[in-house]
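Running low. Any example?
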Amino acid sequence: MSTPGIDVPGLGCGLAVLRDGKLLLYRRVKAPEAGCWNIVGGKVDHMERAIDAARREAEEESGIATGTIDFLCISEQIIAQERQHWLSLIYVTDDFSGEPDVMEPEKLPEFGWFALDDLPSPLSRFAADAVDALVRRQPARNAAS
């Protein structure tokens, strides 16, 4: 039996949750990228749509319920020192209900809301790709206003 992300590339998902221009980030305890700050997300289960996995992971990890979700970007993480390889579909939302909390303290013990120009360090590669995509889409939103 092969392990996704280790024996074969794994399929992951993530959700960049925004409120008042700030991004929700959790600090990871376990690999990949232990100690890094990350958006909510995880593995896409077999026969599960990636967007549904992003919604599920957000609820499991933060306790929030999401409404409208939009595609943001694709992130590929190859972390040689951890023998991890993931391809992740990342989504974005500012449509959610509930207050984020620490739902899985053994995996994600702390969280916060961070401005895109004042982020904690280190960021996971997954979160860094999401932030880059969010920053790239800001001028388009401002021009449309």
Notes: The radius of gyration is 15 Å. The chain has a mean pLDDT of 94. The longest helix spans residues 125-144. Residues 2 and 8 are 7 Å apart (CA to CA).
